[in-house]
From TrEMBL, chain A:
Gene this chain is encoded by: thiG
Compartments, record wording: Cytoplasm
Protein name: Thiazole synthase
InterPro entries (UniProt xref): Aldolase_TIM, Thiazole_synthase_ThiG, ThiG
The keyword Transferase appears for this protein: yes
Enzymatic class: transferase
Entry's family note: Belongs to the ThiG family.
Keyword terms of this UniProt record: Cytoplasm, Schiff base, Thiamine biosynthesis, Transferase
Organism superkingdom: Bacteria
Automatic annotation (TrEMBL), chain B:
Source taxon at top rank: Bacteria
Annotated source species: Roseibium litorale
Pfam families: ThiS
Name recorded for this polypeptide: Sulfur carrier protein ThiS
InterPro entries the record matches: Beta-grasp_dom_sf, Mopterin_synth/thiamin_S_b, Thi_S, ThiS/MoaD-like
Length: 253, 65
């Protein structure tokens, strides 16, 4: 459950960088995503067309505070987004570094505290750091969104052991892998590890065929989720014959 | 009066944020506004007085990740 909302598709899709509004529209449908992320900017040239896509998609809107570098900017952006999109959901990003796009955990916690107290449902973009995660929960967040890898890098889960530890530490808290996913297999891997959802954008938008890739990601996320629910076999260090030895014929001449 | 709208220096006639949004040709519900870095809710735009040098942001939905 994400702030009281259950999602049947656990893929959350970004809406930026698509070759055209028509491709974006098709990709959203093909992905099966029920949550799409959006932003807030000075009026661009196709603002009207984009508003129509949001309306027609039927998806729940998750506005972001992308590009904000201070808690103050992020809080103001979040309040503007709440009014404009009519939702208390906010993907809280407070960027610490323009080149690495690494979250600034101190400003993130500060902004999260203000927004949670103001009635927002905060989805904080964070690292796999356990203490930062605890501070965010104390601030009032009920979901955490650790990065897989730096935004737009397509590197997949760069610190698998750290993410595994985070999953175990925050059992029962919805965790969404946000950013850095490059391929459907990486998204499936995150879901197999027990993460609750995957949020991505560039891997679909910058694919040769974004609509096909959106479909592939939708299926991979569903497969990974199903595999986690089904329970993966334990890993073994040695071979173990799967065909029974009992009843084996003696065929040596 | 000279103000900054979305980062651009502009000479405007509007005295309030509500009038400015209309003067710029926006539907009031299509935009979110901030004055000098602080969010101004839609219902408070009419009482948000503009003064020379004010920094106004008028934002709309945009693609995002």
């Amino acid at each position: 459950m994400f702030y009281g909302t259950d999602l049947s598709s656990r893929l959350m899709l970004g809406t930026a960088q698509y070759p055209s509004p028509a491709v974006l529209r098709e990709a959203i449908t093909a992905s099966g995503a029920e949550v799409i992320t959006v932003s807030l900017r000075r009026e661009g040239k196709d603002g009207g067309a984009f508003r129509d896509i949001l309306k027609d998609s039927g998806c729940r809107i998750l506005p972001n505070t992308a590009g904000c570098h201070t808690a103050g900017e992020a809080v103001t952006t979040a309040r503007m987004a709440r009014e404009l999109f009519g939702t208390s959901w906010i993907k809280l990003e407070v960027i610490g570094h323009a080149d690495t796009l690494q979250p600034d955990p101190f400003a993130l916690v500060e902004a999260a505290r203000i927004l949670c107290a103001d009635g927002f449902d905060v989805f904080p973009y964070t690292t796999e750091d356990l203490i930062v995660g605890e501070r965010l929960l104390e601030a009032g967040c009920k979901v955490l969104m650790p990065w897989g890898a730096p935004i737009g890098s397509g590197q997949g889960l760069r610190n698998i052991e750290g993410l595994r530890a985070m999953r175990a530490h925050f059992s029962g808290i919805p965790l969404v892998i946000d950013a850095g996913i490059g391929s459907p297999s990486q998204a499936a891997q995150a879901m197999e590890m027990g993460f609750d959802a995957v949020l991505l954008n560039t891997a679909v938008a910058k694919a040769l065929d974004p609509v096909q890739m959106a479909r592939a990601f939708g299926q991979a996320v569903a497969a990974g989720q199903m595999a986690y629910t089904a329970g993966l076999m334990p890993r073994r260090d040695m071979a173990h014959a799967s065909t029974p030895v009992f009843g084996m014929a003696e065929l040596l001449p | 009066m000279l103000v900054k709208i979305n980062g651009e220096d502009r000479v405007i006639r509007a005295q309030t944020l509500e009038l400015l949004v209309a003067e710029e040709g926006f539907e009031p519900t299509d935009v979110a506004t901030a004055l000098d870095g602080e969010f101004v809710p839609r219902e408070e735009r009419g009482s948000a007085l503009l003064r020379a040098g004010a920094r106004v942001e008028i934002l709309t939905p945009m693609q995002g990740g």
